[in-house]
Write a structure and sequence with these properties.
Radius of gyration: 27 Å
Number of domains: 2
Distance between the termini: 93 Å
Strand order of the largest sheet: 8-11-14-17-20-25-28-31-34-37-39-40
Largest sheet: 12 strands, mixed
Structural class: alpha/beta
CATH class of the largest domain: Mainly Beta
Helix content: 10-25%
Shape: flat
């Protein structure tokens, strides 16, 4: 499918700088741009590529002022990266969606599956479960008993959704994720650990995306809750009775212990670890590999393990590499002090 620069500019409400009739049918990175493709420039450090890219169209920010000739047609928009996302989403919508129910899929007689859903080969849907309109359930997905899934949700291959869990509308659950597995609940008794039954569920609200091989444990009692708009990367562990506020994002390998509450609009970098039973305030930003052992106030920016305010961590990092020299100096000064004391005696 081809689009002209003019069609793209009209869609994005952008300004054309160059040939409005040039056509593109694919996307490319700016450094590898080829004729017939569209690319973008959002980060100034990549500006040098725009002067030699072969891409036919380049999305640029409104405030971009070239310092040399640009052969490509440019489309100036408010935010080049956001505009690229709009175009990618538009292209995704044009893709033909899978339809129909494969003959090898198992659907319990008491389950309710909208007739506009796609159910792939060897998928399993348990008793009394409800699958909303226009859902895509890919091959080998497992959906247990009494599960409810809202309209337009996508469940990719080998996802397991345990009994009683609830998913909202327009969610995306990537391959291998497990929703509703037992929380890590054991009670020490006579030198052994006795399992505590996990009788709650997982509640996932609308427009949540969960990366591949991420696990979200069911609550002991009540619900583990993932609020609307949350985006989780691959390989994340969320324990029982955790609550994640709306529009919070987490990078890969984040681990959250039981009953911790994470606020709305938070950002957690890769490998962040949160101890259980603490509260992370709204809008908090926690840097990669930070270890959080106490409550974090809203609007905080912290880093390190144990975590600390970013400014303090940066100052400490500068000192760390100087510690060997400081140690030698301290020893030297200590010897000088001892010699001075001896002379005084």
């Amino acid at each position: 499918m081809e689009f002209t620069a003019q069609q793209i500019a009209d869609f994005l409400q952008g300004e054309i700088i160059g040939n409005p009739d040039v056509k593109v049918s694919d996307f490319s990175k700016i450094e590898d741009g080829k004729q017939g493709t569209l690319t973008f420039l959002a980060n100034p450090k990549y500006e040098h590529f725009i002067y030699r890219t072969k891409a036919s169209i380049v999305l640029v920010n409104n405030d971009f002022v070239p310092t040399s000739e640009v052969e490509s047609t440019m489309i100036a928009v408010k935010n080049a990266y956001a505009s690229l996302a709009e175009l990618l989403n538009m292209v995704e919508q044009f893709k033909q969606k899978k339809t129909g129910i494969d003959s090898t899929a198992y659907i319990a007689k008491t389950a309710k599956v909208d007739n506009q859903c796609y159910i792939g080969a060897f998928a399993y849907i348990g008793e009394n479960s409800e699958i909303g309109k226009d859902c895509l359930i890919y091959p080998h997905a497992y959906i247990g008993d009494n599960v409810k899934i809202g309209n337009d949700t996508i469940i990719y291959p080998h996802v397991s959704i345990y009994e009683g869990c609830i998913l909202g509308r327009k969610c995306i659950i990537h391959a291998g994720s497990v929703i509703g597995s037992d929380g890590f609940g054991f009670a020490p008794e006579a030198g052994e650990f006795k399992k505590i039954a996990q009788i709650g569920n997982v509640l996932i609200e609308d427009d949540v995306e969960i990366g591949a091989n991420t696990t979200i444990d069911r609550a002991v009692i009540g619900s583990t809750i993932i609020h609307q708009g949350v985006k989780l990367d691959n390989l994340i562990q969320i324990a029982h009775n955790v609550e994640v506020g709306s529009n919070t994002v987490m990078a890969a390998q984040v681990g959250i212990a039981g009953s911790t509450k994470v606020g709305s609009n938070c950002m957690l970098g890769g490998q962040v670890g949160l101890i259980g039973h603490i509260h992370i305030g709204d809008n908090a930003q926690i840097g990669a590999q930070a270890g959080i052992i106490s409550d974090v106030a809203k609007d905080s920016k912290i880093l390190g393990s144990p975590a600390m305010p970013v400014s303090k961590f940066m100052r400490s990092s500068v000192i760390i590499e100087k510690l060997p020299d400081m140690y030698r100096l301290l020893n030297k000064l200590q010897k000088e002090v001892e010699e001075m004391k001896k002379k005084q005696l």
